[in-house]
Structure formats: C-alpha cells, structure tokens
C-alpha cells in the first residue's frame, strides 16, 4: 500500500485516486496517525499531501514524529514538500507573492523524477510559503520565477518533494512524475488491477462471512448492485437481496433489477411491491422535506419487514450479515476508518432498527466510484447498470413539483424515458453526470397542438456535468439533441405541452429541484 498522509487538503483523495490510476493501491490516513501505526500498515511509500496551513501557523498540522526515520520512500507535495524541507533542515519562508494557478517550472537537474522530461513544464501551483533552501543532501530539481525550490530530491534516502500539484490534470507531466516516484523511487509494482481487486475482494468476503447468511438491499443504483454481485460471487445462495419497488422509479428500472441483474448474477432476489403503500403515504404531500421523510420512513419499514421475513425463513441458519455499498469517500469523510466510519455506514442503511443486529459486509469500502464501475464491468454486470446516472433515494417523488400521484408519476416516467433515450442515442451518457427531468405538476401552461388549445404542464430538463455532485454545471447539450427531446416529449407524452431547460449551476441551484 501507499499511504497518502492528509494534511487537510482537498487534494488528498485526488492523490489517492491518481496513485491507483498507476495501478498501485493507496489509502488516505490522517496526519495525526503516529508513525509507528503507519509503519504497521507496511507501506511501500508515503505521500505527504498539500494542506491549507502555513508551516508557521500555530495550529499547523505537523509530521508525525519519526516519519522521516521509517526508511520508507516519501514524496512531499505542496505543504508536504514544505514540511519535509523544514523537518530535514531546509528553510521555508513566507512570501509576499502567492503563486496560484498555472505556472511554468524549469527543470534544473533531471534526478529520478524529471529524467528525460522537457526542461519547461506547465504545472499547477497553489501556495504562498515556499522552500528557499533545500535540506543538506538534496538536489534541487526544479524552480520557477518565484519559487527557488519547486522540486527537490534525495534518492539515496528516498525523499522527493515538489511544490506544485502533480495530481491535478493541469500539471502537464503530473501523472508521469507520480509514476516515477512510485515505480522508480519506491519500487512499487503495478498490481492493483481490476482482476486482482475482484479476486481479492471475493476471497475477503468468503473469509468474513464463512458459511453464514447475508442480506443486501438493492436500490437499483451502481454501488449496491456491484456490492451484491461481488458478494454473490463469494457466497452464492447464502445471499438474499431485497429490492423495494416504491413506485417512484424510472421507466424500466424495476424490470432492470428483476430481470437483467438477476440474469447477470443469478442472485436470490426478494422483491417487495410497495407502490400502493408509498402512494398512500405521500397522498397530498407537497413539501419536499416532508416527502423525503415519508419516503425514508416507509422505506425502512418495508425493508425491515422483508428482512424479518427472510430472517424468519432461515430460522435454522440466522442471517448474520448485511451487505452495504459504502464507498471509500464515505469512509474517508467520516474519519478515515478510525471508528467514526461506522456511524456513516449505519446511516447508509437508513438506520436499521437496533433489534435487527447485523454485522456489516462492505466490499467496496476501499474503492472510488470509477473503480466500482470498472469492478462492475469486471463482474459482468450490464452497462445499463454499471453506467447508470446517480438517482436519489426518494426517486421521482422529488422530481414532481407538487403532490405525487400515480398519474403524474406515469407522465414523468414517459418524459424521463425519452430524455434518457435521446441522450444515449447521442452517445452522451458518460459525459453527463445526471439528467433529471422535473414535472412542474402544479404549473399549467397554454399551448396549441393540432388546431386546438391545450392547457398542460411544463417539464424541465436538468442535464448537469459534475465530478462528485458537490458542485455541478449545467450541461451544454447540443441544440439538435434538445430539440429532439422537446419534440418527442410534447408529441408523445400526454399533458406535457412545454419543455424548458434549467441553466443554473450548483451553487446556487441544487441538482434536484426539491
Ligand atoms: P442536490 O440536489 O443536493 O443533489 O444537488 C446532489 C446529489 O444527491 C442526490 N440526492 C439524493 N440522493 N437521497 C439520495 O440518495 C436523497 O435524498 C437525495 N437528494 C439528492 C442527487 O440526485 C444528486 O446526485
């Protein structure tokens, strides 16, 4: 493993992902972890991330004692570069001039990292402090106009540092530098591949679950689908999946789970048709928060009932495990596996009742979303499942502005299906993060169709691009695609006589309308 020591940068996750792109496993650890604990994880290399603090700030995060004595090759990035310089006897200074954004470094000595590369390279900088003098034993490998030590290394001792951000795509040769450090500087081998990940995870689940039984809630989303497929490979019929059809799904989604997913995995599926129940609970409700609460509450009840049934059926062999599709970012954000992670995992199930005590199986908890998709493909799941857009738990319930009814759901389902179909036909599925279609059910607008006046409803198209849903931009869909969607929706979907496009970024808008 490669440990990415997090100094509070938004970049730590990105660094970890890039390391994995070099086919080397990486984990993020807090900078407060003692060096001995780091060593216990047997790291092949350590990367010190950037961070917002100045090394001179009072509460600046410090390098764990003894980290530079572990004998593990270490690469400092930005703040990590500065703490390395400071700890090993170099000097770090405050500068009047900050260096933010694109810059050009000049390679002053090739060393291990820059060997054979162009002398001038574009890089991404984000700093104010800078290393003015490298520690004894180091060679300065790069500089910029304002940063005398933009790169330094001491290959003998296995220490490397750069002031810029190699993990950011704007840094021209960033990935290559990282690769050099990993392969040449630290002797890592590129063995983190999907085949290995799949095999190792399957083996780990087998060991954890043994001959016991497990259940898994399927949401129709990518994460639970991949988790279930993987556990199914590991323990076969000892797994039962529960799929709650709450009637707020998109067209063909329930069938996709019931047919395609089962066909691809051979999993035991327990489907609960709870459509009536959800419609009844949502009857007349217009407030978004109230909708969410009702849907969440009903979901837990239905899931709990199903779980009890399955547990009951299997009285001879109790169900001990609950499979969850928790991803690595959830684990990191809730404390990097330092105990706090469990709170989040329970939260993910929507708070299962205490009297249903399960041990958790979380086979994806070391993976990023793109890795989960690749793993899904490796496990033979169909692309329609693997490349699905994220879809909110409350489903179409929060894409109908106004009260939810069966009729309105059917209208929205038809419009949404057309939009998705045309997006796929235009080959844009992987560029668009999400494409909600929203029914303004309480708004009516006048139109003319045939020779008559219509008085129908508008729908809003909300295609967005995003990396992680925290921020998003409205997608500039080609006009001809928009036009096709508009024509088809107004022609084919009853009661819709107007199609609009939402051109708000997030912030200030959210992706969903409710
Ligand atoms: P917003 O609308 O807040 O959404 O920009 C960000 C992302 O989260 C999804 N979303 C939800 N997912 N339960 C979920 O599982 C929810 O209640 C929920 N609300 C929003 C949304 O689709 C987008 O991907």
From TrEMBL:
Question: Sorted alphabetically, which CDD domains does this protein's record hold?
Answer: GATase1_GMP_Synthase, GMP_synthase_C
Q: Which reaction does it catalyse?
A: XMP + L-glutamine + ATP + H2O = GMP + L-glutamate + AMP + diphosphate + 2 H(+)
Binding positions for ATP per the UniProt entry? 219-225
Q: Where is the GMPS ATP-PPase domain?
A: 192-388
Q: In which pathway does it act?
A: Purine metabolism; GMP biosynthesis; GMP from XMP (L-Gln route): step 1/1
Pfam families on file: GATase (PF00117), GMP_synt_C (PF00958), NAD_synthase (PF02540)
Broad EC category = ligase
**UniProtKB keywords:** ATP-binding, Glutamine amidotransferase, GMP biosynthesis, Ligase, Nucleotide-binding, Purine biosynthesis
Which Gene Ontology terms cover its molecular function? Answer: ATP binding; GMP synthase activity
Q: Which SUPFAM superfamilies match?
A: Adenine nucleotide alpha hydrolases-like, Class I glutamine amidotransferase-like, GMP synthetase C-terminal dimerisation domain
Annotated Gene Ontology cellular component terms: cytosol
Location of the active site = 78 (nucleophile), 165, 167
EC numbers: 6.3.5.2
Q: Which InterPro entries match?
A: Class_I_gatase-like (IPR029062), GATASE (IPR017926), GMP_synth_C (IPR001674), GMP_synth_GATase (IPR004739), GMP_synthase (IPR022955), GMPS_ATP_PPase_dom (IPR025777), NAD/GMP_synthase (IPR022310), Rossmann-like_a/b/a_fold (IPR014729)
Assembly and interactions?
A: Homodimer.
What's this protein's function? Catalyzes the synthesis of GMP from XMP.
* UniProt name for this protein: GMP synthase [glutamine-hydrolyzing]
Protein source organism: Actinomadura rudentiformis
What lineage is on file? Bacteria, Bacillati, Actinomycetota, Actinomycetes, Streptosporangiales
What is the gene name?
guaA
